[in-house]
Amino acid sequence: MIIHDKLIFVENPKTASTSIRSILERYGGKEHGHQHFGIREFNSIPKKPIRAVVVRNPFDRMVSGYQYATGGGTDFKSWVMGLDWVVAPGVDFKRTPQLHWTCQCNFVIHFEGLQDGISKLFKRIGIPDQELPHLKKSDGRKRYQEYYDDETRAVVADRFAMDLVKLDYRF
User: Fold this and answer.
1) Looking at CB atoms within 10 Å, which of 10, 53, 104, 164 has the fewest?
2) What is the pLDDT of residue 140?
3) 59 compared with 68, residue with greater pLDDT
4) Please, how many CA atoms are within 13 Å of residue 79, restricted to the half-sphere of its CB?
5) What DSSP string describes 21-56?
6) HEC readout, 118-157
7) How far apart are alpha carbons 164 and 58 in whole angstroms?
8) pLDDT tier at 109 (50, 70, 90 boundaries)?
């Protein structure tokens, strides 16, 4: 989580948070607590007028997590069905809905419109508009739909059912 003069930026894993943090830190943003804690973990955070987060299609986000965690070194199905991938104390990426990070946020950016959303956010907090760097990019990645079979699609849909409904995503 990054605290800036007018902003709390909640770092939802695999939603370009590292790229966004790189810019916020250049303009005075400071990390607060663990990078991927949700806002509700911090009762002592001073309230800021803007509490922002980026969300991503859960199916696409799962493939991004798989690529990052394994480099493609194991098959996707085994990874999805396998052990937890803990990204913060008590937070399993493969089973924690994105709503964990969005609660109490009043500025939600969809990953699919990332540059436009970030430009609007930066304008509201007084940071010059700029191209977002693409840090931690996965090379050679296929479209997310190509990773799924019926079973993995059903598992991810079940685990992230509330995200799909509340954040308006589909396979």
Assistant:
1) 104
2) 72
3) 59
4) 20
5) HHHHHHTT-EE-SSTT--GGG-TTSPP-SEEEEEE-
6) HHHHHHHHCCCCCCCCCCCCCCCCCCHHHHCCHHHHHHHH
7) 7
8) very high
